[in-house]
Amino acid sequence: MAFLQRSRPAPAPVPEPGRMSLRTKWAVVGAIAGGGIGGLLATGSSALAVYFARRVITPARQRASDQEVLAVIRDGSSLQVIFAATDDTTVDGTYGFFFDNGKGHARIGRIVSYSPADRTVQREVEAVYAGDLSAARWGWWSGALYPDPAAVGLPAEDVLIDVERGQAPAWLVRAGGTARTWAVMVHGRGATRQEALRAVGPALELGLTSLVVSYRNDGLAPSADDGRYGLGSTEWRDVEAAIAYALANGAEEIVLFGWSMGGAICLQTADLSRYRHLIRAMVLDAPVIDWVNVLAHHAQLNRIPSLVGRYGQLMLGHPLGRRLTGLSAPVDLKAMDWVSRAVELRTPTLIIHSVDDEYVPYEPSALLAQRNPEMVTFETFDRARHTKEWNVDPERWERLVKAWLRGRLAPRANPGGVMAPVGSTGGEPR
Fold first, then answer.
1. How far apart are CA 384 and CA 282, in angstroms?
2. How far apart are alpha carbons 214 and 265 in whole angstroms?
3. pTM
4. How crowded is the C-beta side of 299, counted as CA atoms within 13 Å?
5. CA spacing 20 to 30 A to 405: which of 38, 136, 386, 420?
6. Strands 157-163 and 166-173
7. What SS3 state is found at 156?
8. How far apart are CA 394 and CA 381, in angstroms?
9. In a 10 Å sphere around its CB, with 0-12 CB exposed, 13-18 middle and 19+ buried, how is residue 9 labelled?
10. Any residues with CB less than 8 A from the CB of 322 and at least 6 apart, and which?
11. More confident position, 15 or 259
């Protein structure tokens, strides 16, 4: 979920046809900021603040191909690839590699050799799902290993979920028998539903039917009316629609899985949805717990002065700032600060977060667990970077998730004292 390319100069925003003139926009900015930072408006820093704010909420049309392929080696039936060594390619584990502008997709396995002096790393290629890897020169690294459920060996149905502006595609992977508890899986910002396929196997082992969803502005579901991310403040309605679909098709309880911004979306769903009493538990991987913290982190990464970064946040949350950002409504960042709202979280939640996460700092996750230990269980990983905990150690990730969920999905007594089966709705809503 990188918002900006690090160390790349930020261009000034380009006026859009039919929008306010630049002079008028700065007048609006002045109304927001007041006289206290009037000096800022007289500099190019104000343009940088606008640029930063817009980049946070604007879906990218295409992922940046920032990973270089140096050579592809074929040895009989096996294939290996030499990458330029980066923080991503030098970490053990299994990953996805997308190339040819996303039309190609390979599954990359173990490290064969690593030369720090040459800054190269050679890795096994476990599968090529699409495209000609031998012709690839650039691509991007991903935690999404598989293109679809079939590649994981899972039978799935393609279903459509009615959302506000049309229908959102989803994969439905049914558990055996009559599963009364469904897992609704929510990918992160700039990712796709492929990201969630890593969790479907463990969910099936627990007897959960999985609904792997898309949501507004992710390239599959219908776009929002403003074409902007709400950072969870709007996307949760699409997850609520997915829950409604599940309930209409036999589900009685829900477990939410969320990655990165998908975690923020799940938290909003558990807070605001009319079905919140049916959400039995949440499993959140590298979730955004506090957007102010994340945005400050990205401003620092990209050498944006802290005052400019804070000013960009102000634009996102102020009614007048939407004229600059393109939002149809302001984004309430305080309402999505779950460190401050820790005691209000009443859904049992497992958070898994790597301590070296380069995009979403782990400290807010730790603070949420510290402030609400009754509801939140926190597990850390090392060297997994952002949302790749499963990729680094799938056995541990799955063991943690299954053990924790078994405890939360254990049979519980209904009001009459008879134990209800796992997945049923025995007992009163929380």
1. 21
2. 12
3. 0.87
4. 23
5. 386
6. antiparallel
7. coil
8. 11
9. exposed
10. 328, 329, 330
11. 259
